[in-house]
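Hi there. Long-time user, first ticket. I'm pasting a complex I've been working with (about 301 residues overall). I'd like to know whether the download I got is complete or cut off, because the file seemed smaller than I expected. Thanks.
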Amino acid sequence: MTPIGAKREGTPGAESLWLDVTRRCQLNCGHCYNSSGPDGDHGTMTRNDWFSVLGQAAEIGVSNVTLIGGEPTLYPHAIEVAERALALDMKVEVYSNLVHVSERWWAVLQREGMSIATSYYSNKPARRNQVTRRPSHARTRDNIAKAISLDIPIRAGVVGNRKRQIWTAKRDLRMMGVEEIGADRIREFGRGGGGQEPDASNLCGMCGDRRASIGPNGEVSPCVFSTWMGVGNVQDASLASILSGPALAWAVASIEGARRGKEKTKACRPDCVPQNPCDPRCEPNAACRPGTPPSECKPRN
Ligand code: SF4
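Hi, the file is complete. Here it is re-exported in full:
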């Protein structure tokens, strides 16, 4: 694992950061990994704090950021943060529930270097609305269609634990014209954990490897799911020192250790191969980046 701030000489600068700007969201999903919702706040990070983080990130070679939350478009300075990142030559992904996209946001999203990511749960309106615990299916679908009509790059991640639900949701997305579609199980964090203590073995294992997340209060963690593993705060220390520091190295090592322990207890069907996996969520060709866990395809890995 190579922490972001410890980029080796000669290695390509393919590093990325999640800018986890808010805990506010119009929705209130039962599985939300960081317990965001209508009562969530924007934390203590100011617009200038985010600008400072972006400046430091550019200096250490970060080339991709994802604005995430909560619903990042609800953060009052999110457009300015996105535009600052673009000005620093970064690619900017906005991980949105697409419930409401303002005209100003549509204009920004059409700029070179911008893209959208969204989660999708079901082709059935009642099922999605049951997941999000507020009416959202029609709006999200309309805005996916609008993004495609405007030629804005968009990817979708289907979240669920039932194979048929994932299969039908993927088919629905493909029929809408979404080409980049991933899938993930519900991760047992936040409300998704149902009150249980977070378990590092439920992480994907790529956390902290040339990627990290910065939360609404400035706390840095290996990824958006592992926010309980704070490794430093950008309001107290430089981003480079945090990303090359011992706390992140320890967190990454402990995640690896927890995952190794769990791998021993899981097994695929004997004839499982990447071309015909035993689980439709298996994405042999997926690569981890903000908002998408890497492939958990065991035959490939
Ligand atoms: S899962 Fe996403 S859309 Fe649902 S409450 Fe959490 S942040 Fe909002």
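A couple of notes from our side: The radius of gyration is 18 Å. Residues 5-14 have pLDDT under 50 and may be disordered.
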